[in-house]
């Protein structure tokens, strides 16, 4: 659904799992810092609201959105996180750089999900202008960081239920 039609921070009617036993990594880009810091605040506040312990939120900073994939991979390889959220912001400019960065990080996040069989959540804004980014990092359309945090909680919960179901089916043999 287009975010222009929905507030990214409105989760009415959606079941949000309790994160008290979860450990979440966040890789955040330094580029467009005003935007990414607001996304990070939204993500952290939402995780804390749903009982993820502050010490179980591990944040790493990377130079730009393109580097989010390696930041996320480092969190997956060198920590014991249950999921990783990547937060960045790419604003359309006059060159095709926007396309290359957006395609690269999207493909990288997809590959990490598959390679590690752990949730890696795409919280990257890809906007036409600064105002659209501001609207999506705590402005008129909510905060994509909130949405990414809720998605992480839901995907960890799904992942754990599927794993537990699979394991219990073999215990009954």
The end-to-end span amounts to 43 Å
**How much of the sequence is in beta strands?**
15-25%
Number of strands: 6
Helix content: 40-55%
Secondary-structure-derived class = alpha/beta
Which outline best applies? globular
With strands numbered from the N-terminus, the spatial order across the biggest sheet is: 2-1-3-4
Overall mean confidence score, pLDDT: 91
Plain-language structure description:
The structure is a single chain. The chain is α/β, with parallel strands linked by helices. The protein is built from 5 helices and 6 strands, in the order βαβαβαβαββα. Strand 5 (137-139) and strand 6 (142-143) form a beta hairpin. Helix 1 (33-49) crosses helix 5 and helix 2 (68-78) packs parallel to helix 3 (97-116). It is globular and about 60 Å long. It starts with 23 loop residues before the first strand and ends with a helix. The mean pLDDT is 91.
């Amino acid at each position: 659904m287009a975010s222009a039609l929905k507030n990214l921070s409105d989760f009415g009617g959606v079941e949000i799992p309790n994160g008290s036993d979860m450990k979440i990594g966040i890789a955040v880009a330094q580029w467009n810092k005003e935007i990414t810091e607001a996304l990070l605040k939204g993500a952290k506040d939402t995780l804390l609201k749903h009982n993820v312990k502050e010490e179980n939120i591990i944040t790493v900073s990377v130079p730009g959105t393109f580097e989010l994939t390696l930041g996320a991979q480092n969190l997956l390889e060198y920590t014991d996180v249950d999921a990783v959220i990547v937060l960045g912001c790419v604003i359309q400019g006059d060159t095709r750089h926007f396309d290359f960065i957006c395609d690269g990080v999207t493909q990288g996040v997809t590959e990490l999900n598959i390679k590690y069989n752990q949730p890696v959540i795409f919280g990257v804004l890809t906007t036409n202008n600064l105002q659209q980014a501001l609207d999506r990092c705590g402005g008129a359309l909510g905060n994509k960081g909130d949405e990414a945090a809720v998605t992480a909680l839901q995907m960890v919960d799904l992942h754990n239920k599927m794993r537990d179901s699979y394991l219990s089916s073999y215990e009954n043999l």
